């Protein structure tokens, strides 16, 4: 079956308390917006998550786990959707040491997780 795919760029702002989200979709965003510090693609991703919180006519609460290799931006993605620094981030792997739940809104909770390392220890494209 098909799974939804969303183009998304996390916020890279360092100083700001309230992280910016660009309202432009990634496909229409000019280069300077894509290269800037604001998050791009949040609206579409939030819409996908909101759709999962609907089961027919009934709205339910969902918990979404964010998983992946170390230092790929899991915490940055969550911070960008939350628009605040809910999770610690850093340039070196291993900042996130345990599961952390972040309430995005009334119906959606995100789980930040430590990086997953495969048995070989290296991501497939790092070889």
Automatic annotation (TrEMBL):
GO CC annotation terms, alphabetical: nucleolus
Entry keywords, A to Z: GTP-binding, Nucleotide-binding
Gene3D superfamilies in the record: P-loop containing nucleotide triphosphate hydrolases
GO molecular function: GTP binding
G domain residues: 63-117
Protein name, as recorded: GNL3L protein
Organism of this sequence: Columbina picui
Name of encoding gene: Gnl3l_0
């Amino acid at each position: 079956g098909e799974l939804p795919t969303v183009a998304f760029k996390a916020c890279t702002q360092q100083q700001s308390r309230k992280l910016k989200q660009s309202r432009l979709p990634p496909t229409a965003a000019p280069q300077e917006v894509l290269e800037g510090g604001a998050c791009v693609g949040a609206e579409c991703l939030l819409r996908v998550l909101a759709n999962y919180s609907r089961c027919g006519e009934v709205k339910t609460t969902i918990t979404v786990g964010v998983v992946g290799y170390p230092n790929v931006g899991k915490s940055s993605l969550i911070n960008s959707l939350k628009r605040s620094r809910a999770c610690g981030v850093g340039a070196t792997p291993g900042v996130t040491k345990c599961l952390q739940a972040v309430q995005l809104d009334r119906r959606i909770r995100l789980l930040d997780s430590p990086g997953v390392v495969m048995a070989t220890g290296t991501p497939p494209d790092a070889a």
